[in-house]
């Protein structure tokens, strides 16, 4: 196999010295092998995207395919004679040529194929697709704004910018404005053409016979009548490229000029009446042809030639490094065409030399010295006469010339003086330098191309390797691995590291879980649904309370009130304050009974109803815990339940501990709800219908008693709250204290004992404050809404105090009603706020517990792992086996890559030693 291959190689490169051919064959085989190994690796890679590496390998494959057609791109200014040059090289009148700008309208590929006979030679057309137009259109949408940046999106614009950059330098007429103006028009032109073709408005085939010359010319010439901008049959913008498939030259001894195994690419000239031409040119240049023939016209060697050189520099060489540039320089053949015009005095030698020197400098630092002025072997510079060569070849082959062609030929004959007419065509041909150019290109293709090809292939292979390596390492980084230890003794440490990484990730997952819980709660608390539901429930309590108290009062008024409050033994507050206020009212015993009953009812209702509210909150929380699978998650992170449980306090597992926290949370919250509601509700005086019993002497004492409900219950609640001690409510404590101080009725007889009472209240409050401050809670309360509600309530309270002082009971009823309405609203709002805050506070405590439980859990695991606990490790690795597998795979890829590299290195060592 290898031998066969070698024979084929040697036959193919018969122009090379045998030793060189063999050495290069060895190198080629090595690269082939490397490519094969890399391909195997890349094909089996999973989990990382190696598409780019695959592309590199395809490129390498292409470079290594020495038997493929070599691609020679002919580029240059319009009218330089590119098409004529190709016709001359082929010795055939194939491509349309013409005086004037922009003749060749698209990319034209010409290749010869052994086995095709002259009769089956044909031209195939490839059309642009709707997709490619669409992309172009999208890319140019932003064109209405200004600046070059936006143009860069469009390739034709990008090409044009390159021209402009060089043109600005050379005072060209192409400006950025020109491009901005052109592009939309041209896109429209393309779109219209494509649409017309797509709708089969006119007949175009995909294939033409080589002799359908007229039809082909009309299709492929930018300057044909059919392709006129106003033509209804305009077609050229839709043709992506044309392919001439010619019969191969099978003769052993070739008489005419010929290129073996090549595809010659004719391009539209750099002239830019249309951006499309730049785009086509760019596409060709970017496709990295194996050789480039750069055609400069002798008669006008000025700005255009420089533009072209800059195009090369900007579009082709810009991302080349020095060695790539010098590789590229070897591929460039510089042809000054129409050299006959120098002789006839139409050109300017000095200007030409200057232009050529500059172009050379752009191509490469040493192009001028090596390829233009250097040794014959390296020669890449030709002053050619394509037209003359073409005409001569026609004569040689006995093809008749047109009258115009005859005239030109005659004028050339005059130019060169008389010669033997028979030998003239051959002499002209030789003189035209075209045979020399072809010979050089052939030599390049058979000799230097090999080395170049191998170097390029090698470069693509390393690119592929580097790419695979980079993406693998990146992937490993995602798994938290920053270095790939290959030594086997590292295994132990590796496992430890990996286990710890899993554990850290577990912890991160738990942290994320708690974060999402927090977010859920936050959202829920602020949701309309929640607020309206709680308000509704609060309303229910308020109305129940109102109704019950009305009942108690009316029972009291008609004397049927039963004091069964013994069933509710803990009513210490009323007892105490009854003596404080009721004892001095002169209606001994009566308020006591009423107040005891009222307070009892109050406790009863709030006790019952607050449970519902608490349940509403806690059941939401429970459902959240279930939804987020908190316990399951936590359990999933306990890899060794027994060990972990033992190490946890009170032998509770993390989940048990957390559940206990949850139960505590709920219990706390229930009592908070109760006390919160107690406080809020007693701020609300009770509305009773006093009118009916206005005349009754009892009524006045009832009124009096009712009016005292406010301060008494106020005190009762503050006292109650002090027991819960859950919040630093010093702000509102101060406010309540002040309200109550001003509110306690002060009759003249009472004045005497005033000091005593004030002291009593002040004492109570300072001890309350102390207990709050000492409790050290960090809960932040929305002080604004709190003090607002207290302030508005406060405004009305002095009024009541005054009325009570003056014994104006009628008015009291009105004020109490007002108070009721005001406080009713306030109570709901404040209660809601408090409930929310307290819920969040309790939830916060739960979160802290969660964090500490999970932290301890992970810490325990880490210490087990450190201590070499096999069980936990096993379980950890098992749980993460998929990831484990991924990592193993990727490390495997990297090792294979390393192996491929070492092999290559080894063999090159072998080679040098
Ligand atoms: N005097 C002279 N004229 C030439 C020579 N080569 C080509 N021409 C003429 O220059 C004109 C342009 O030639 P083309 O081959 O169409 O030029 P091109 O570079 O393909 O032009 P585009 O397709 O527009 O890019 C034609 O009229 C040719 O006959 C030459 O060596 N000497
Ligand atoms: Mg042309």
UniProtKB/TrEMBL annotation:
<dbReference type="GO" id="GO:0016020">
    <property type="term" value="C:membrane"/>
</dbReference>
<dbReference type="GO" id="GO:0003924">
    <property type="term" value="F:GTPase activity"/>
</dbReference>
<keyword id="KW-0378">Hydrolase</keyword>
<dbReference type="Pfam" id="PF00350">
    <property type="entry name" value="Dynamin_N"/>
</dbReference>
<dbReference type="InterPro" id="IPR027417">
    <property type="entry name" value="P-loop_NTPase"/>
</dbReference>
<protein>
    <submittedName>
        <fullName>Dynamin family</fullName>
    </submittedName>
</protein>
<dbReference type="InterPro" id="IPR027094">
    <property type="entry name" value="Mitofusin_fam"/>
</dbReference>
<keyword id="KW-0175">Coiled coil</keyword>
<feature type="coiled-coil region">
    <location>
        <begin position="500"/>
        <end position="527"/>
    </location>
</feature>
<dbReference type="GO" id="GO:0005525">
    <property type="term" value="F:GTP binding"/>
</dbReference>
<dbReference type="GO" id="GO:0008053">
    <property type="term" value="P:mitochondrial fusion"/>
</dbReference>
<keyword id="KW-0472">Membrane</keyword>
<dbReference type="InterPro" id="IPR045063">
    <property type="entry name" value="Dynamin_N"/>
</dbReference>
<keyword id="KW-0547">Nucleotide-binding</keyword>
<keyword id="KW-0342">GTP-binding</keyword>
<feature type="domain" description="Dynamin N-terminal">
    <location>
        <begin position="72"/>
        <end position="305"/>
    </location>
</feature>
């Amino acid at each position: 196999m290898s031998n066969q291959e070698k024979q084929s190689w040697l036959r193919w490169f018969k122009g090379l010295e045998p030793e060189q051919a063999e050495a290069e064959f060895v190198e080629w085989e090595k690269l082939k092998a490397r490519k094969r190994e890399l391909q195997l690796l890349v094909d089996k890679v999973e989990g990382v995207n190696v598409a780019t590496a695959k592309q590199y390998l395809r490129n390498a494959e292409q470079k290594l395919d020495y038997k493929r057609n070599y691609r020679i791109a002919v580029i240059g200014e319009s009218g330089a004679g590119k098409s004529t040059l190709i016709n001359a090289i082929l010795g055939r009148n194939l491509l349309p040529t013409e005086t004037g700008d922009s003749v060749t309208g698209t990319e034209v590929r010409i290749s010869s194929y052994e086995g095709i006979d002259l009769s089956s030679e044909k031209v195939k057309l490839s059309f642009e697709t709707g997709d490619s137009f669409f992309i172009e259109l999208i890319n140019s949408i932003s064109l209405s704004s200004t600046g070059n940046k936006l143009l860069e999106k469009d390739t034709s614009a990008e090409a044009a910018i390159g021209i402009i950059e060089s043109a600005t330098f050379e005072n060209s007429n192409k400006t950025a404005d020109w491009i901005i103006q052109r592009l939309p028009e041209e896109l429209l032109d393309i779109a219209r053409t494509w649409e017309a073709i797509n709708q089969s408005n006119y007949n175009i085939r995909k294939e033409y016979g080589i002799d359908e010359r007229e039809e082909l010319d009309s299709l492929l010439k930018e300057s044909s009548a059919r392709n006129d901008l106003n033509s209804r049959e305009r077609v050229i913008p839709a043709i992506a490229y044309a392919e001439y498939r010619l019969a191969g030259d099978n003769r052993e001894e070739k008489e005419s000029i010929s290129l073996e195994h090549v595809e010659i690419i004719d391009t539209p000239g750099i002239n830019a009446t249309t951006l499309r031409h730049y785009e086509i040119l760019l596409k060709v240049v970017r496709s990295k042809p194996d050789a480039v023939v750069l055609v400069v016209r002798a008669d006008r060697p000025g700005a255009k030639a420089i533009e072209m050189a800059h195009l090369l520099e900007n579009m082709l060489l810009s991302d080349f490094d020095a060695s790539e540039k010098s590789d590229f320089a070897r591929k460039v053949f510089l042809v000054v065409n129409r050299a006959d015009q120098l002789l006839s005095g139409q050109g300017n030698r000095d200007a030409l030399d200057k232009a050529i020197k500059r172009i050379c400098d752009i191509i490469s630092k040493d192009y001028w010295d090596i390829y233009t002025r250097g040794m014959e072997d390296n020669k890449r510079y030709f002053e050619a006469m394509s037209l003359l060569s073409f005409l001569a070849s026609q004569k040689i082959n006995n093809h008749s010339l047109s009258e115009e062609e005859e005239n030109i030929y005659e004028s050339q004959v005059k130019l060169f003086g008389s010669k033997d007419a028979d030998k003239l065509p051959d002499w002209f041909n030789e003189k035209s330098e075209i045979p020399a150019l072809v010979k050089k290109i052939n030599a390049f293709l058979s000799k230097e191309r090999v080395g170049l090809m191998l170097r390029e292939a090698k470069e693509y292979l390393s690119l592929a390797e580097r790419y695979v390596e980079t993406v693998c390492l990146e992937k490993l980084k995602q798994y938290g691995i920053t270095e790939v230890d290959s030594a086997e003794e590292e295994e132990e440490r590796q496992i430890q590291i990996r286990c710890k990484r899993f554990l850290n990730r577990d912890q991160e997952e738990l942290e994320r879980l708690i974060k999402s819980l927090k977010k859920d709660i936050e959202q829920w608390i602020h949701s309309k649904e929640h607020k309206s539901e709680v308000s509704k429930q609060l309303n229910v309590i308020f109305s129940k309370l109102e109704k019950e108290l009305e009942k108690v009062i009316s029972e009291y008024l008609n004397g049927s009130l039963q004091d069964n409050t013994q069933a509710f033994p803990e009513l210490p507050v009323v007892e105490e304050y009854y003596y404080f206020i009721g004892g001095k009212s002169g209606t001994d015993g009566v308020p006591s009974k009423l107040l005891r009953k009222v307070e009892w009812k109050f406790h009863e209702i709030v006790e019952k109803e607050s449970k519902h509210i608490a349940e509403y909150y806690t059941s939401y929380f429970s459902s959240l815990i279930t939804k987020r699978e908190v316990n399951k998650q936590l359990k999933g992170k306990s890899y060794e339940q027994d060990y972990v449980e033992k190490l946890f306090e009170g032998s509770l597992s993390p989940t048990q501990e957390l559940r206990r926290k949850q139960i505590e949370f709920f219990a706390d919250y229930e009592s908070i709800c109760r006390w919160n509601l107690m406080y809020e509700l007693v701020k609300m005086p009770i509305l009773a219908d006093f009118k009916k019993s206005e005349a009754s002497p009892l009524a006045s004492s009832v009124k009096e008693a009712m009016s005292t409900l406010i301060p008494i219950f106020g005190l009762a609640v503050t006292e109650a709250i002090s027991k819960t001690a859950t919040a630093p409510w010093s702000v509102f404590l101060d406010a309540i204290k002040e309200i109550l101080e001003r509110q306690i009725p002060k009759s003249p007889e009472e004045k005497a004992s005033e000091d005593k009472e004030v002291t009593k209240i002040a004492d109570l409050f300072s001890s309350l404050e102390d207990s709050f401050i000492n409790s050290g809670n960090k809960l932040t309360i929305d002080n604004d809404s709190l003090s607002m509600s207290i302030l508005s309530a406060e405004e009305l309270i002095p009024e009541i105090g005054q009325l009570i002082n003056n014994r104006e009971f009628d008015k009291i009823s009105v004020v109490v009603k007002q108070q009721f309405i005001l406080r009713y609203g306030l109570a709901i709002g404040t209660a809601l706020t408090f409930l929310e805050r307290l819920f969040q506070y309790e939830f916060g405590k739960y979160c802290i517990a969660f964090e500490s439980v999970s932290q301890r859990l992970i810490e325990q695991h880490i210490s087990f792992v450190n201590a070499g606990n096999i069980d936990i490790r096993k379980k950890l690795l098992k749980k993460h086996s998929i990831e484990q597998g991924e990592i193993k795979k990727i490390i495997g890829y990297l090792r294979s890559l390393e192996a491929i590299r070492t092999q290559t290195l080894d063999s090159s060592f072998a080679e040098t030693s």
